[in-house]
Write a structure and sequence with these properties.
D-Maltodextrin-Binding Protein, domain 2; globular; alpha/beta; 334 residues; binds (2S)-2-hydroxybutanedioic acid; 46% helix; 6-stranded mixed β-sheet; 12 helices
Length: 334
């Protein structure tokens, strides 16, 4: 058997050590939407900025469209460290036990992006993100998608139009009651399954901002879309806490800078992305788009304020009061 000299062994060990040290740190960033959406573009911007800021020491692999995991599965994957970064809709934190995040699902809570940002970019948002730490998750930022509309194969102008419709929702008690109070039957389902479920009639309708409706081609199987602005899809960019805290300090600082800039980028483009997507749906000629009048909106609000009253206790009075105070929203005054 060939014997290696001490010199050879030491040289080999050194070469191995250098090669190992030069391995980039990998961040797998998984998400469920298409690349040409506010979140999809934000993730790619973070990749570009993070790789540049760390001189290639960090490699970010972005996996869009539920390629790796579906909704709740991706949360488990993050907790066990199979992926390092996600940007789930905050509605998906309820099933994890962080039910305060379901506050974002309350109907008509926010009138505009400016009001939403008072929460997401302010102290209430920061204290919400802290609630994830006990789950092994660090919240880095909030990213916008936008205001939701409703879709189905019938016009949805009044609450009565929802009667008996099976409506797909994310797994949130607040969304469940929202659909019930409209007279519909809520059906929890993973995002990646919605197109097919609409196509085959497993569900009759759904809610989402135009960017998701368009890029998942849901409009192809929904004849009617109502611009109702009755709620928002908001994301939290989250990382595995242990992974993030174990990064060398200089790398972590560079990544935090990249996240700050990617957040500004994502939130700056979100509104226009949704305007453009709605226009593309309109141009397709497959779907009729209806915008609620002020009176119709009032009727929807009236039908939905019970969700605030009944779900408030579950969400937590402290969170709810802080948001009502910051936005000036009063469920008893329409
Ligand atoms: C949904 O499940 O409808 C959304 O949360 C998908 C997303 O990430 O925008």
């Amino acid at each position: 058997m060939k014997r290696f000299s001490v010199f050879t062994v030491v040289t080999m060990a050194f070469a191995f050590g250098v090669a190992y040290a030069q391995q980039p740190i990998n961040i797998k960033f998984s998400h469920v939407v298409a690349e040409n959406t506010p979140k999809g573009k934000g993730a790619l911007k973070f990749k570009e900025l993070a790789e540049k800021a760390t001189g290639g020491k960090v490699k970010v692999e972005v996996y869009p469209n539920s390629q790796l995991y579906k909704d709740q599965e991706e949360m488990e994957a993050l907790q066990i460290g199979a992926v390092q970064m996600l940007a789930p809709s905050v509605s998906k934190f309820g099933p994890l036990g962080a039910k305060e995040f379901e506050v974002f699902d309350l109907p008509y809570l926010f009138d505009s992006e400016v009001e939403l940002h008072k929460i997401t970019q302010g102290p209430v948002g920061q204290s919400l993100l802290k609630k994830l730490e006990s789950k092994g998750i660090l919240g880095l930022a909030f990213w916008d998608n936008g205001f939701k509309g409703m879709s189905a194969n019938r016009p949805l102008k009044t609450p009565a139009d929802f009667k008996g419709l099976k409506m797909r929702i994310q797994s949130s008690k607040v969304l469940e009651q929202q659909m019930r109070d409209l007279g519909a039957i809520p059906q929890v389902m993973a995002f990646s399954e919605v197109y097919q479920a609409l196509q085959t009639g497993v569900v009759n309708g759904t809610e989402n901002p135009p960017s998701n409706l368009y890029t998942q081609k849901m409009y192809e199987v929904q004849k009617n879309v109502t611009v109702s602005d009755h709620g928002v899809i908001e994301y939290a960019v989250i990382v595995n806490k242990k992974f993030w805290e174990g990064l060398p300090a200089d790398i972590r600082t560079a990544l935090e800078g990249a996240m700050k800039d990617a957040t500004k980028y994502a939130n700056d483009i979100a509104k226009q992305e949704n305007i453009d997507a709605l226009e593309l749906v309109r141009k397709s000629g497959k779907t009729e788009i209806y915008v609620l009048t002020a009176d119709e909106k009032r009727a929807w609000k009236k039908a939905l304020m019970g969700v605030h009253r009944e779900q408030g206790g579950r969400i937590g009075k402290e969170t709810l009061d802080a948001i009502y105070k910051a936005t000036g929203f009063d469920p008893n005054k329409l």
